[in-house]
Amino acid sequence: MKVLVVGGGGREHALVWRLAQCKRVDEIFCAPGNAGIAELAQCVDINPLDFEALLEFVKYNWVDLTIVGPEEPLARGLADRFQKEGRKVFGPTSEGARLEASKVFSKDFMKRWGIPTAEYRVFTSCTHAEEYVRLKGTPIVIKADGLAAGKGVFVAQSFQEAQEALRLIMKERAFGEAGQRVVLEECLEGEEASFMAFTDGKDILPMVSSQDHKRVFDGDQGPNTGGMGAYSPAPVVSPEVEARIMQEVMLPFLRGLRQERIPYRGVIYAGLMIKDGRPKVLEFNCRFGDPEAQAVLPRLQTDLFEVALATAEGRLGEIKELQWRPEAAVCVVMASGGDPGKYDKGKPITGLQEAQAIRDVVVFHAGTAFNDTQVVTAGGRVLGVTALGSTVAEAKARAYRAVELIHFQGAHYRRDIADRAIHRPE
Ligand code: AMP
Ligand code: GLY
Q1: What average pLDDT does the segment 267-287 reach?
Q2: What ligand 2 atom has the least distance to the C-alpha of 287?
Q3: Which residue among 56, 217, 389, 394 is least enclosed by CB atoms within 10 Å?
Q4: Which residues contact 137 (CB under 8 A, 6 or more apart)?
């Protein structure tokens, strides 16, 4: 079987790496891929938003299944276009992807189906939004409605901060059209966790839990990023909490899809805030998390291709449950200094082989490229170094041992990934 993976980040490397181990997979293509993916798949230089070129490629190369990594092609209708041409695709249609692409749609959907989430109001006027902030007080959370690459959410601690965020989103249009509407919501307290599941709109198969580290600096300081590291499992998702997530979030989500006739074949990701064992949804994403995928997929024992194909063909019910390695996984993201702001590209990366040589370590590439003979940096998040271990602490120690072998100018990484799991009060 031939598979095309769309995207070129760490998540896509983790997908390709797992697919390369699947029995029925003969050939993997990746558009556009990166330097690490190129070792396992044939990278093709097609923009993930160029649907016609992707379709042409899939037809010409007899690709059996296309797996979409990032949200933007899904939100813009890649799956709709592919399905119309009778092509199998893993990833929801644009209607399903609205759960991620529009915070307003997502919040309204949660409300309709009784999914626990923060109290909220939607505004199209900056003045009215400011009045609401005055009324409700701070802290308050301000979210641009549309896609903003994880950067359109502000937790405002003061009225001034709220005003500044509203100005940035609504007046300066820092996120373009995404800023036409804003969601203002209650600031929730608790511990965050990520919970992903495969679904074909009829059945749902949960994955193991994980936790992302969104802030750029240690101790959760500094601005939000795409994610500086992740680990799995997240102890805050105890078996009881998982049961509640399934009952209160995932099953109502599925019911909502069915009743509203929203086709959905792919991954549903719930970003959760958990307090006193009660989960509330911060956001839905219509795809694997990045870097959560780099922590979760190395634990997956079930054949990923078979799960993805069953999902795409609407027969996920045939797979009763997923098998997971009992070990914990920790993924440390190495980023270019300056990210999420300005950063340099083209810095040579050394030590990759040495790091990979450590048992139970995989180095996933994100923003990397080949420059003649060497691998160089080519993005904000450069690498995701994942290690497995019998405990989270062991996985963490191993991941950092690998990270310390890897060098590039300006490399930045957090040193406290997974500490929350390790230093957990009983
Ligand atoms: P989102 O993209 O909606 O998940 O928001 C990004 C990050 O902002 C989340 O991971 C949280 O850290 C934070 N956040 C979002 N919504 C809330 C909320 N209602 N209360 C507290 N923090 C939030
Ligand atoms: N790690 C958060 C996300 O993928 O949106």
Answers
A1: 98
A2: 4
A3: 56
A4: none
Joined tokens for residue 172: 């300066």
Rounded to whole angstroms, how far apart are CA atoms 70 and 226? 12
Q: How far apart are CA 117 and CA 256, in angstroms?
A: 15
2-93 architecture in CATH? 3-Layer(aba) Sandwich (3.40)
The CA 67 to ligand 1 mean position distance, Å, reads 27
Please give the distance, rounded to the nearest whole angstrom, from the Cα atom of residue 82 to the centre of ligand 1: 32
369-402 in b/e form (b: 16+ CB < 10 A) is beeeeebbbbbbbbbbbbbbbeebbbbbebbbeb
Residues 6+ apart with CB under 8 A from 415: 218, 400
| CA-proximal residue: ligand 2, atom 3 (nearest) | 289
Q: What is the pTM of this model?
A: 0.96
Look at residue 372 and tell me whether its pLDDT is greater than 90. no
Kind and range of the H or E run holding 336: strand 328-336
Mean pLDDT, all residues of the chain: 96
Question: How far, in Å, CA of 408 to CA of 312, rounded?
Answer: 39
In angstroms, the CA 32 to CA 16 distance is 12
State the pLDDT at residue 426.
Answer: 63
Ligand 2: distance of its center to the CA of 206 in Å? 17
State whether the beta carbon of 187 lies less than 6 angstroms from ligand 1: yes
- Surface-to-core class of residue 418, CB atoms within 10 Å of its CB (0-12 exposed, 13-18 middle, 19+ buried): buried
Residue whose CA is at the smallest distance from ligand 1 atom 19? 187
Instruction: Report CA(291)–ligand 2 centroid distance (Å).
Output: 7
Distance CA(332)–CA(227), nearest Å, equals 10
Task: Tell me the ligand closest to 211's alpha carbon.
Answer: 2
- Please write the tens of the pLDDT for every residue from 109-130: 999 999 999 999 999 999 999 9
SS3 193: strand
Mean pLDDT of 221-242: 94
User: Domain extents for the chain?
Assistant: 2-93, 119-186
The pLDDT confidence band at residue 175, using thresholds 50, 70 and 90, is confident
